[in-house]
Amino acid sequence: MMRRYPLSPALLTGVLAAFCVPPAYAQAASCSSLDIELAAAVSHRWPDLPSDVRAALDGRDDLDRCAQIKLTVQDTAIVVEVRLPDGRSAERTVARREDIVPTLESLLLVPPRSLQGTREQLETEGPEPSQPVKRAAKPGPAPANVPASGIRVEPVGGHPAVADRGPAAAAPRSESQLRIDLSVVSGARVGDGQSAVGLGVFSFVELSGWLVGLGGRADRYRSLAEPKTDGGALELALLGGRRLRSRNLALDLLGGLAAVLQGTDTFEKQSATSDFKATSSSTVPRLLLAARLNLNARSTLHPFVGVDGELGPTRANDGGAVPYVSHLPMWTVGLALGATVGTQ
After folding, report:
1. How far, in Å, CA of 235 to CA of 288, rounded?
2. Treating both helix axes as pointing N-terminal to C-terminal, what angle do 49-57 and 100-108 enclose, rounded to 10 degrees?
3. Which of 80, 79, 52, 51 is nearest to 67 (CA)?
4. Are residues 76 and 165 in the same domain?
5. Does 7 map to a domain?
């Protein structure tokens, strides 16, 4: 005959505590580390940003760890987006990397446990005897802008947002950023009875949308009329302008001055009594204008297309010592195609 032993209340409590884990603890364990998603532009620029954010926030127990964090770039600003498990989301725009952690703190901060306990106590205890009892409203879906903690969240800046309980997010502002570009360009020009093809290299420094740069280009000119003559020229230019950005496109408006060096022409004449030899070279100033459209301008390497033109003297005056020397066209216009590699 089997003997039955009474099960003590203490033992029963321990078994129930071991197998009946509250859902809140399970959820806390599954959200032990922040879920951070970075856009490609942010990851390329700051590869160590996720580890820095986790190092600053993982040690805190007053933040909602189940939120999803997404960091993207819009123009020159950083967009911080937070999405909570219940579907609510918030978005802030900051100008510097240093503003990301304070912004996340304000979006992820949850009310103290004492406040949550007070609210739950008020809900369970009910009104005091001296107060009239109000009929409870029919339960229904909570408004989208009212969190579970009972603190109402108001839309900020036209976006439904989690209430900021910490430092206010930094307002968007223009950020002076220095960029350096190196471009290789090829193009064709025509004008004043001549055509030209050329290849050049240009380098620009961009500061808050303003451009300044140097460049060089070698061109081969050919006359369109008979007899057809060829001539070469080397062009050294100082350029400046403005860069206008719109999403993944950038329009460069450029202008500047150039010095064009033409090849040396030699003339020799021999006779029975004497020999004559003369040489002629020329360096003339030119005015340059150009417009370029950069495609996928946020990439480190991107192509561009453009139009350009120049105007100036055809040749320095050499006194006619050498006949039939080559001359530059007084004006030209043309198309350009190239690629740029630069910093972000």
Report:
1. 11
2. 50
3. 80
4. yes
5. no
Is the CB of residue 202 less than 8 Å from the CB of residue 236? Answer: no
How far is the first Cα of the chain from the last one, in angstroms, to the nearest whole number?
84
**Which range of residues forms the domain containing residue 157?**
25-129+141-175
For residue 3, pLDDT over 70 is answered with no
Domain co-membership, 30 together with 162: yes
- Residue 285: which CATH number? 2.40.160.20
pLDDT digits (tens, 9 = 90+) for 294-336: 999 889 999 999 999 999 998 887 666 566 677 899 999 999 9
pLDDT tens-digit map of 100-133: 888 888 887 776 555 455 555 545 554 444 444 4
Split at pLDDT 50, 70, 90, the class of 201 is very high
- CA neighbor of 338 nearest in space, from 182, 207, 180: 182
Q: Are residue 161 and residue 212 in the same domain, yes or no?
A: no
Closest C-alpha among 237, 312, 310, 317 to residue 282: 317
Reported pTM: 0.48
* Mode of pairing for the β-strands spanning 249-270 and 230-246: antiparallel
Domains contained in the chain, number: 2
Question: Do both 100 and 192 map to the same domain?
Answer: no
- Is residue 41, in this structure, part of any structural domain at all? yes
- What tokens were used for 308? 């350009």
Integer Cα distance of 172 and 146 in angstroms: 27
Q: Please indicate, yes or no, whether residues 310 and 298 belong to a single structural domain of this protein.
A: yes
Sheet holding 68-74, edge to edge: 35-38, 68-74, 77-83, 89-94
Distance CA 334, CA 185 (A): 12
Quote the tokens at residue 50.
Answer: 């996720």
